[in-house]
Amino acid sequence: MSDRNALMSTIRSDLPARDDAALAAALLARQRGAAVEAWTRFSPMVLGLLRRFFGPGPDRQDLCQDVFLRFFARIDELREPAALRGFVVSIALGVAQNELRRLRVRRWIRLTPGGELPEVATIGLDPEAREATSRLYEILERVSVEDRALFVTRYVEKMEIAELAAALNIPLSTAKRRLMRATRRISSKMKRDPALACYVDGLVSGRAAKV
User: Fold this and answer.
1) Window from 43-57, 107-121, 165-179 with minimum mean pLDDT
2) Do residues 142 and 84 both lie within one domain?
3) Among candidate residues 86, 119, 152, the one where a domain is terminated
4) Domain boundary residue, one of 119, 154, 179
5) In the predicted model, is pLDDT for residue 106 greater than 60?
6) Quick one: CA dihedral 48, 28, 83, 81, positive or negative?
7) What separation in angstroms does the CA of 83 have from each of 4, 20, 28, 129, 145?
8) How many beta carbons lie within 10 A of that of residue 110, not counting itself?
9) Which is nearest to 163 in space by CA: 176, 148, 147?
10) Measured in Å, how far apart are the chain's first and last C-alpha atoms?
């Protein structure tokens, strides 16, 4: 068992479920069981976000645990107890973006075999969807880390813009402007790809129209 797994397995909770504000107060007070309650509540969300951010490939359990180690270490930075979920998301996005930068640097300096993207997982996807997923993540690999974070959290994770802005710690107007720019950049690349062109109209006229 890794040190991180050992850390999580030693925490026990005997507290009933509570809302985010009450859980935040318990975490800030270092109450017994609050940490494992936070892990139980938010780890599925964090793991899902990490998987969608990076796309098909290796499991992201280690990164998920990194997120929570940082979360517990930084809990005193939380200013709005009711915004606990957004605080977790902001840390998860920070970890994801830093990891993506690290992976790109490793490819640039040829520390990975061939610098190729990981193979796309085939379980649960028909051939057409598998091809589209592969092409999408090839496009996301070529855009900035910030554009990728905006696109994934909005259109894949389906996060509302206000929540996205809070998670990235930027004003709502800035989030809207950056998202619109990222959407234009990525959708223009998608339009040029036969496997993805059919998805662009729904993307731009649907959720993007609400920006």
Assistant:
1) 107-121
2) no
3) 119
4) 119
5) no
6) positive
7) 26, 7, 13, 35, 24
8) 9
9) 176
10) 45
Query: What is the CATH classification number for the domain harbouring 60?
Result: 1.10.1740.10
Spatial neighbors of 43 by CB under 8 A, at least 6 apart, are: 64, 68
pLDDT at position 65: 92
Host domain of residue 105: 1-119
What angle, rounded to 10 degrees, do the helices at 61-73 and 84-108 form? 130
CA dist 168 and 155 (Å) reads 16
Looking at the fold, whether 7 and 71 belong to one and the same domain comes out as yes
CATH number at residue 150: 1.10.10.10
Q: Are 117 and 137 in contact (CB under 8 A)?
A: yes
Closest CA to 175 of 157, 153, 197: 153
Report the chain's mean pLDDT, rounded to a whole number.
76
- 161/73 same-domain check: no
Q: Is 44 exposed, middle or buried (0-12, 13-18, 19+ CB in 10 A)?
A: exposed
